[in-house]
Structures are given as structure tokens and as C-alpha cells.
Amino acid sequence: MKTLDRLFENSARSLAKRTSRRSLLASLGQMLTGAALMPLLPIDRTARAQEPARPTAQEQKCEYWKYCAIDGYLCACCGGTSTSCPPGTQSSPITWIGTCHNPSDGRDYIVSYNDCCGKVSCGDCFCDRNEGEKPMYRLSRNNDVNWCMANSESNYHCSVSVILGVAEK
Amino acid sequence: MIKNWPGVTLLILAAGAGPGWAATSPPLPTEHLTIATVGPKSPHWLYVVDYAYANEIDSRVWLFDGDTYRRIGQIDTGFIPGINISPDGKTTAVATTYFARGGHGTRTDVVEFNDNNTLGKTGEIVIPPKHAQSLAMLFTIGYSADGKFVYVPYLTPAASFGVLDPVKKSVLSEIDTAGCTLVYPWGPNRVSSICESGRLLTVTLDAHGKESSRTTSEPFFSADEDPVFVQAVPLKDGYAYLSFLGQVHEIDFTQPKPVMRTPWSLVSAAEKGTWRPGGVQIGAVHRARNELFVVMHQGGDGSHKQGGSEIWVFDLKSHQRKARWPIDIRQTGAVAAVQVSQDPAPLLFLATEEAHLLILDAQTGKLKHDENHLGQTPQLLLNP
Q1: pLDDT, tens only, B13-26
Q2: For the residues B137-159, what does the mean pLDDT come to?
Q3: Which among B56, B132, B157 is the nearest to A156, CB-wise?
Q4: By three-state DSSP, how is residue A6 classified?
């Protein structure tokens, strides 16, 4: 224990020699400023993949209620699920949204349709549904544009549908 | 014996076709490898844009002859291109994207110019990597009427458009469009973009391609109640914007500020909400005959991209429907795109969701030809 005590004492003294109280205050100030700014930064809602995708049969069907305003290849047929991009792709941070009715609980949900990017088109399970879809002048509701447009790898591969919450009436 | 036994005759002929006889027959002439030429132009030529959805980095344009039903050649068009033909018909301009490593790597956006006489590339302009990659339409690249400017909409998703000089092959300017989108060119120096507020923003350019002034129209549609398709139909003096429910908004673009004419309806009160325009390229006009051809389907809300089962023909002066032409969509797939040739004996071209190209007599609706599987997803048809 004495050895450990000595080690920490020497370390603390060394730190005290190298830094002033003013620099300590400055560092603390920077940390506090950073903490204050953090809530203003965009939140990355992209979930980190925990395990290989195992899509349900329902997720691979265009009729699935969550796909009510999707236009593209279903990622659930391309190595992902309805909420995960296939391995090796990137999710688009910008999206279009739809409002879809879940017949199982009778609720309407706001759904985000992210594109998965960085590989050529998946080419399987093409699905084009357009409930509430609007032309390009209302971009947030438009499924015609390549939503990989702002990605560093902007090729379009497939599309997912992620529930954001219950739509308020 | 031979006369009475025709089978024996056949045997003798078959034996004569063997190697022994071949040696005594003259050899085939030598052949020379050539490159086919495009040949003289015809008003019945059609540029068929295949967006190749299953492999989008490899879209292309087929040049197709509506009289001989043959493919004349191909223009490569890259990834989700904007495509249009110059006012003199000599050039096909393509705004597109290439990735450095095929499907990935550094993105380069470029406007490529193709000689319609040779189908070879004649030049390019590298543009900022933000050309609007969207569904098939005529408004993701456009020429000024005198051919001196080319306009390319940008989307990042902030909206703007680039002004290019196709002669000097240079980028002249970028014009911010305040959220309004796409390019609807008119005259030598005006460009309109369509806005969520239901208005048109119109920018007038100076001789150097820079903005000299802008105007905003009154609203002519409601994006909430009855949105218009952005795939407007070119008219003699402007564009017609069709709404999801079948309203026709004809707009005179010859004035500095676009002038909205009184809207009229494609559908009767009984048909409204049941029969709708839809598809991708939803309408075409024969300018001399003053006729509008519209792809129509039966469907409800959200069916605006559904292909059509009928073509409806309207007189643009009287707004009367002149004909309904049902399409046998069980055989061909529903109609995604329509175009009409502009000559006195016009052809009507229809591209379907199952990649058929149908050619009809545009005066009678009679089917003349069904070209089965022209490409993969043909969705835009252009005339020279």
C-alpha cells in the first residue's frame, strides 16, 4: 500500500508542479461550457448494430403497415430489417416521413424512412407506396429523391422504416 | 423411283448438304467490321430513358425508331440522371453522378453532352456534387430557348440551381431558390421553380447567367388539399400542372411573371376521386393539334404514382374529352409514361411498368406495336 500511496502522491505533486489553479479553473470552465452546449448538438438516433439482422416475414412484405409511404428496396430483403441497414452500408441522416396506421392497435404512427447508402441498389423487394406522399416541393414528405444525397457515400442501396412516435390527432 | 419416294429425295438432299458438297460451293464473302451510323432523323424517333432501378448507377437512354421498331443506339447516363434535349435537337444533355469506384468512392457530378447524330459524347461540365437526384422528369435539367444556358437543379437538401454555359463548358452561377425546387425554363433567360406555398418563383438572368431579378407568383394550388405533380406538361406558351385529383393548371410563361389561366378538370363530378391522373410522365401535348394525352387510373388517395389503365385525350381549347383509350394492362403492365410525336401523323408512345413500349396511332388510339421489354424501368420518353 505504501508503494501505491507514494505513487499517487508523486503523481499529484507532479501534476501540481505542471499546472496552475488558473489552468484548472479554465479546464473546468471549458468542461462546463461543453456540457451546456451538448443538448444543442444533434442527436444521433442511429442504433448500433447489436446482432445479425433477423427480419420477420412481415418485414419483407410491401403490405407491412409501416411501409405505407416507402419507395425503394426493402432493407429487410437485403441483409437488414425494417429498422436496420444491411452490413457495410451507412444510414442516411436526413429522411422523409410518413404517417401510417397500425391495424393491430388502431394508432397512427409517425414513421421515418431512412435510406441505407454506399452500395449499389439492392434490387430486391421493390416497394412503392405513397400514402400521404407529396411532391418534391414538400421535401420532408417526398420519397422520390435520393435521401443518401448528403452522405459521404451517396449511392442508394435500400430503405428502412423506423417508428418515431404516435401521431397526435 | 425417286419420283414415287419423296423420302429418298430428301435423303439425297441431306447428304448433299454434308461436308463433301460444301467444299465445292463458293465460300462466304469476307466481312468487314463497321460502326453503324444513326441515319437520317425522323419525327418518330423516341429517346427512352431507362432508369435501371435494380442497378441505378447504370441508367441509359435508348434511341428507338417508332416506324421500324428498332433500337438505333444507346447513350450512357450514370446514376439517377436528369436528361433533356437541346432546342435544336442536336444534343442530349445529361446531368448525372459517377462514383470513383463504380458503386462507391468520391462522387463527381457532371453534365455530359451527347451528339444525337453519332450518340457519342462531345464534352462535359463538372458541376458541384449536388445535382438533384429525383424521379424521372423533364425538369432535372433544362435548356434556355436559345440554347445558350443550361440549368441544373441542386439539392443538398437546400435547393438552388446552377446556370451553365454549354458552349464554353463552364459553370456561370448558382441561384438560391429559397426552398423552391426544379427548373422550368422559359425564353432565353428565365427559370421558374415550384414552391411548397403553391407559388412559382421566377428568376430572370442577365447576359452572364447571373440573377438580375426575381418574382413570386400568386399561389395556384394547395399542397395539402390537392397537390400538383411536378412533372408538368410543356405547352406552346408555358406548362400545364396537373393535380392529384385531376385539375389542370395551365400557366402562361411568356410574361415576366407567369400568368395562371382558369383551372379546368380532367374528370366529371362523378369521376372525381375515382379516376385520377398518375404514373411518372403523366401527360403529353401535341402542340399543333392542341391535344392533351393523360395517363389515367382508378384509385384513391396515395395512388398518384400508380400506372394508368387508360389514356384520355382532351381538346385543350374546349377542355372536352375527345377519347378514352383502354390499355390491355394485363398483357403489358400499367402505363408509367406517355409521349406524343409532333408531326401531322403522330404516334403515341407509352412506357409501362413491365418495360413494354407501346406505339399507338395518336389520332385513333389503335395499337400499332408492342415492344416487349425495352430496358428495365423505362419511365421518361423524349422527342427530338
Answers
A1: 444 444 555 568 99
A2: 98
A3: B56
A4: helix
